[in-house]
Amino acid sequence: MAAQAYFRQAEEDVFVGNDPARGPWSAEHCHAGPVTGLAARAAERAVGPEKMLTRLTLDVLKPLPLAGLRVLAEVTRNTRTLATTRIEVHALDGTLCMSASSMHLVRKDLGDVPTAEVAAPDWAEAERDTSFLIGGLHDKPAFGQFVEMAYPRGGSRDPGPKTIWMKTPQLLEGEMQSPIQSICALADCGNGISWNEPPVRFGFMNTDLTLQIHREPESEWMASDSVSHWHGTGVGMSQSILHDTKGPVGVALQTLVLHPITS
Is residue 222 a contact partner of residue 212, using CB atoms and an 8 Å limit? Predict the structure, then answer.
């Protein structure tokens, strides 16, 4: 299925979801990953390109209507070194659906500096195959059908920790997304990548997302190395190391709420 952009812009701050933005749990609501991209876009536009977005923390308060979202960002601090913003995502009736904050650091040219050498998935060894993020509680086209996927050679696709490569649609029709915006949809997929059993007995939605970036991605294909921790209390967590084809770029953390699925 050809990939549309996640959203079209209806007004200055209003965005309407296309099929790729639809989440798996409700036909009328968005997957939080594409909306995270809208929050990142608003924060980046508020601060400007001289500072890099390094942290985005979001709380998902209400379902995010596919029919329309208003996204607003306000700069709360701006110095020579850093800037912070507050972002709010509202339904068109005014309901606050998501709140967020961001940190931005000034860009510098320090030349070559030492950094940690860590093992990373090898894009050259990846094998393209069908997406496994296609399950849901409705039959309408949704998020997982519009992403391309590749898998480490010999890598597991069973329940539990795993690594996947993903190429996602553009954020907005007619607009090139920034490197940070391009990784947001993947960042919110840790729970869907590393589920510990198929979503038959339990759902495992995330209530928040913290995305920490130390290097802007440089490739269309990006990988998430993810693990989920589930507990009988109904509380869980997903943690992911995010990579582009050159190596690690950041981490993503999600708090999960486990809930019984009733037929």
Answer: no
b/e string for 151-176 if b means 16 or more Cβ within 10 A?
bbeebeeeeeebbbbbbbbbbbeeee
Residue 146, both tokens = 């519009």
Q: How far apart are CA 39 and CA 118, in angstroms?
A: 30
Give the pLDDT band of residue 134 (cuts 50, 70, 90).
low
Tokens of 193: 């990548």
87-103 confidence digits (pLDDT tens): 999 999 999 999 999 99
% of the chain beyond a pLDDT of 70: 97
Position 216: which residue type? Answer: E
Spatial neighbors of 154 by CB under 8 A, at least 6 apart, are none
Name residue 210's amino acid.
T
Q: What is the mean pLDDT of residues 142-160?
A: 91
Contact 151, 158 (CB under 8 A): no
